[in-house]
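Standup, Tuesday
Yesterday: got the pipeline producing structure tokens again.
Today: sanity-check two examples.
Blockers: none.

Example 1:
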Amino acid sequence: LLPKLTGLFPPSLVVVAEADPLADDGRAFARRMQQEEGGGAMVELVEFKGVVHGFFTQHDTFPEARLAMA
């Protein structure tokens, strides 16, 4: 990751799938954006429990996909 994130991001939404091997990275990225931005960019972290990486493209398999895309 970059040494500093301040001023690099607009208001952001970070979506994490619980069973994604990259979930910890997504959580850490959102935390870092929140901490460094201070009063700048707003960051919302949304975690979907029990789903895998790329779940939001699998509407027939994961009902959560519709929520993630709404």
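Example 2:
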Amino acid sequence: ATVDVEVRIAVFFKDRLAEALTYQDPQIHEVAYPKPDEPPDLEVHTRINTFLEEWLDVLARQGFVLPKGQ
């Protein structure tokens, strides 16, 4: 079964870094930084960024990569 998932990502091209900020599926909505200008909720931050890392790894293995210089 397919599940629609939405992830809001901050991308820092200069640092070649991506960070998941929010995760939402039909049953879960999680926010890494629930309070503005405060540190993240580490449990949520770790969980949604682990998901992001795994998802990006799958995309890379399938050939979805940015050309060099982007």
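Quick observation on example 2: Residues 42-61 form the longest helix (20 residues). The longest strand covers residues 17-24.
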